[in-house]
Amino acid sequence: MMVGSTAKALRIAGLSKAYAPARGRAVQAVRDFALELAPGEFVTLLGPSGCGKTTVLRCLAGLEDLDAGEISIGGARIEALAPHRRRIGLVFQSYALFPHLSVFENAAYSLRLRRAPEAEVRGAVDAALAAVDLAGLGARMPGELSGGQQQRVAVARQLVMKPDLLLFDEPLSNLDARLRVQVRAELRRLQRALGITALYLTHDQDEAMSLSDRIAVMRAGRIEQVGTPREVYARPASLFVAGFVGKANALPAHAAACPGGTTAISILGHAARRATIAGEPAGACIALLRPEAIRLAGPGGDGIDGAIEEIEYLGDRIEYRVRAGGALVAVVEPALLRAVALAEGARVRLAPVAEAIHLLPPEPG
Amino acid sequence: MAAGAAGGQASAGGSGALALQLALGAFLLLAIAWPMADLLRRALGDGDLAASPLATALRDPFARRVLWNTLLLGAALAVVGTILATACAYAMTRIDVPWKPLWHFLALLPTISPPILMALGLVLLYGRRGIVTSGLLGMKTTALYGFWGLLVAQAISYFPFAYLLMLNQFRGLDASTEEAARTLGASSWQVLRTVSLPLMAPGLAASALLLFGYSFADLGNPLLLGGDFPVMSAQIYMAIIGMYDVPQGAALAILLLLPAALMFAAHKAIGARMTFAGVGARGAAAARPRGSRRARVAALCLLGGVGAIITLQYATILAGAFTQLFGINHAPTLRHFEAVLARQRGALLDTFVLGVAAAALSVAIGLLIAWVAARTRLRGRWLLDAVAAAPLAIPGTVIGLAFALAFNERPLVLTGTAAIVVLAFVVRSLPYGVRSGVAALDQVHRSLDEASTTMGAGPAATFRRILLPLVRPALLAGMVFAFTRSVTTLSAVIFVVSPHWSLVTPAILSQMDRGDVGEAAALSVLVVLMVLAVVHGVPRLFGPDWRGVRGAGG
Fold first, then answer.
1. Prediction pTM value
2. Which of A157, A293, B25, B65 has the most CB atoms lying inside 10 A of its own CB?
3. Is the peptide bond before A259 cis (omega within 30 degrees of 0)?
């Protein structure tokens, strides 16, 4: 990754924020939240709506007063600063362009506030508009642009300010699905090229996976797990994380350490063995199996016997739901893998990929 | 709440709607077009235009000075009131100030009181024998009477309307736009200057024009506080009541109508461009009030100051009502109330009865006009809508005078009847009746009446069985507003009251004229209590439950 010279680290520690409505009980939106971003790193806060991720972002931007906690950027504490002194850019879900100003003046806004000389304004704005592929549209009014273009103006406006930290509040959620994938890739390219430290909010796991250096999965005001996309997907810290970043089969299992650094895992009577992973539970536990990490084979031989109960055709892939040992197990295969299609009711054998089995301690309650 | 429509009879089809449109048209012709045309005829005279009363008035230097005074006062009120209203609305929506419901209540109190009360309060406080000027400071001053006193009285009376308008403007702004400016490095003040105010420019202009119009229409304050600063409405009153010079009164009325109509046209033109082209995809987010310590203190001082001034007004009127002779003898007494209840019971009762009747009528007619304009495809329906909105442009004094003159002669003599009072009330409230009708119908999705139509209900059955039950709560709100507007007006009724049907506001004026300040204060207290009871009682009795309906209908 190319790290820009201006990139700064972000450190959040002990952040707490409760909302006290006029009537009713106070709501603890964020509780003892901690997160660190390396300079130039792109981290996604992933979580369902209401998990507190927007509150974290608004506290960072200074739009919300925090109850407790520290925020520092490049080592300097900022939590007591007014929003306009923080040098933190924010790209809003609604873009929040100034409808009475042209695209150029929208982008130039931060420089106009500083009364920057005209030549500097022109240079910086033209460069920013070119960076988001909007060169030549400066004279337009925001209302004359498409949603995707408005979104890029919102980004360009932040680039002109050269923020120490760039925040994104679900910026793609108002775009249609096709455009979203395209803009997502552009955003990532831009952020890498500029090397700005960025924190990105989303509830869309695909977005989080494709954009991020690391993902922080949030639940009920706390971080449940922080890790690279691969870690979060393959080794989720909890059933919640596993379920939020994709489909997962959670099956009762028993694990035992074996000589030679391996672990023997028994799932619904099927025995598997793979290299031990440090810190994983032993004894009665839960085995997480991603649907694409289970192979379907004909009956007989090694594996778990079952019968196909439902088949869902999804175009590029097929999802089978197989009844095996009282559990309903989801298995996903590429759609055009088989010459002869499997039918509902067919007897099959489930063969999990041993290396992909992830063990979790049994959930309390 | 929606009644089943399956059994609806197609009792009135397209021809029924057409008959309704014709009836409404005839009503508007009789109640608005005819009196105004009659007034114009009188102002223009019968023969030579150069010798007409209007031309005479235009040549008269005194009348020209009065017109100039009127414009000057209106402009001053527009500027002062808009600045004050904007500041208060900003403090209420953007800054975390304590006791907001209290400030809001106090700021809106003048909207439900006759404006003449403000003059009464000011006279008691700062007049020749005012408790502040004479009592505290020992001054014998007449400074209150004239331009400045009028400006203050009108500012207190009418600033709340501009405040409501600006409150909605601030609430309507997408908070994320302002927050974006903050994160881009703008201080609160820079956000206001570079983002909020430019976005609200049409709203600011609308507020200024609104206040201009209110200043033109005000009669009570100029009569009591005008002094050596005569304005149009008071001059019309003098011409008619003092000199019984009908042609001159009519000419002055037309002279007042012209700038008022211009203001209204400008207001309409701005309203059409009220919002910028939609930007962004989501609905507007509400701003969360915050603010530094200094901002909070400043906001509290502002709101507290405005609240204190208004409180002082009402407290003074209360004190005036309960003391022997306010400013001189402060022994507590109930004699003013006894006198008022003995002598003015009729006025109170008439005001209430006629106000209720007019409120019901203006909302009913307004709803019918709104329905014809919005839900039928009849030709000429826009004209109904436009004529019904015209009274917004006509100062109350002009409407009242036009009524008194037009309905004093054949073919339709209404002088001295309750009908002419109710008609004046209805016409003045009709634009708001139509507006509440439009708002009410907006709550109901068009597909509802289309569904009813497909199930075999005609327009009349659809209206009665589907629309009316759904929109009733919104109409009640409209009726409360119309009632308040009718009960508090002085200008529109001063020429049409009669010994048979007396009203409260003219009674207060004549008590003030006679120097019965105590009785005027007591009657004022009673009328404010009556309006408060209606404003707060009606929603409690009938329950404003239409918000739930909105979700189902949307």
1. 0.82
2. A157
3. no
